[in-house]
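Researcher: Structure for this, please.
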Amino acid sequence: MIQVLRSQKASMNQHTRSDHHSKGDTKGDVLHYIYGVFIRGLLGTALSAAAIGPVMAISPQPSADTLANSPDSTSPLSAAPQSSRRSTQLAGRTIQRSEVRSIWLDRETIVTAGSREGLARVFERFKAAGINTVFVETVNAGYPIYPSQVAPEQNPLTRQWDPLQAAVDLGKAHNMEIHAWVWIFAAGNQAHNPLVGQPASYPGPILSARPDWAGYDRSGNLIIPGQTKPFLDPANPEVRQYLFDLLGEIASRYDVDGIQFDYIRYPFQDAANNRTFGYGTAARQQFQQLTGVDPIELSPQNRDQRQRYLWNQWTAFRIQQVTSFVSEASQRLRRQRPELILSAAVFADDTYKRQQEIQQDWEDWADQGLVNWIVLMSYASNTRDFEALIRPWVVESSYRSTQVIPGIRLLNLPAAAALDQLQLLGQLATSGYALFAADNLNGEMQAMLASTQGENQQAAMPSDELAIALPAANNARTVCLDSGNEPQPAILLQLKKCDGWFGCDRHSQVFTEYT
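Model: Predicted structure, token format:
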């Protein structure tokens, strides 16, 4: 029943996005909706948290009844906005937490810090900016930043120290939560190779040692043309065990507060142009055993009824490889450390798009309670687009005990625009926010966060108004509308403080126009 209900809700979310980003192709929306329901019918109870496995039961031959009676539903669900305080269910007990004010601490910032002392200065900036949770990039491109007994090789740029242990210690000193941010299925990065003295063709330390663990596109390429990252085959039992061992090592050796799954998906694909992925040896063998067909022979362009059915089963098969991994990893980690907060960094795109392009069905993880937090990579250059990305998930949906935390990308984002997006989150009563990334925390952004989010914001506030000094921008002008103020230049932004945030109604308090 959960699967059917969630397909209705996901369909509603998908329509919301389609209305904003397209001209309203009603026929296409309906087809997308039917597809989403159909995929969940294929997955069925095989995706339940209690009885999940590396493969699912798929009928070798589709019957006429199966093709004619795909699950369907027409009643969309909605939910009230979530509270700004979240209730996290861990091992049968409920823990109340204040809003999450988090930041991704990227590998480049860690490497640039170079030592425990250098990292301490980074954490001091976080503290001043009001950060209370740090996602530390612990495994990047197949390299852990710490000396691992599981991974083939530590990142050469961090061998002289242990940044993860330093971050754990600094988190305790500053009363911040430390979460290990781990690349899951992405196993390398051609853009990273020159930094560690490797040629562009180097597949990364994992696939260099175990090339049989690789995933491939339908043409046999390790990396889809135009992309930079090779991916592991999620269907390979040895790949899964390696990743379970790696996650378990982090949880056992380091007193982290949480673990975040990143690249918990397949690489981006374009099925319309036959650019699809997932054809690792293990995946092909398993799917052929289940259906009698090698998936390399299937094409989304084939209009034959049976071929279309099998293609949809191949899509469902790959979705389940990711979901079943999340389920088993969650079960293992919670047995090992029941108090751990598990999160996933995911895309905010609509359900159909994610199923088709990256086989990431995170709503199912949230519905099953497999993770505590869903952290959206909801990156937008303006508040209107930002709201369109997050509203389906933070206002129009509800996921039991799983909290949805929107992400804001700081790169090339003016501080005033970032502030406007933060204001929106306050109005929507979200569980908090995640900032990407530490490398983009420039002086202007730091000053804005310190003034609005930092521990000294109350002291800096005259009566009920907060004055924030921002560098003037040639392409922006700010008009203050509260208290009868005259229009002000962009160097001064006045906001009214309400309900513990920094704006009750951004439309009536301040207006910033970018030209």
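Researcher: Any notable elements?
Model: Residues 1-38, 44-97, 458-515 have pLDDT under 50 and may be disordered. The chain is about 35% helix and 15% strand.
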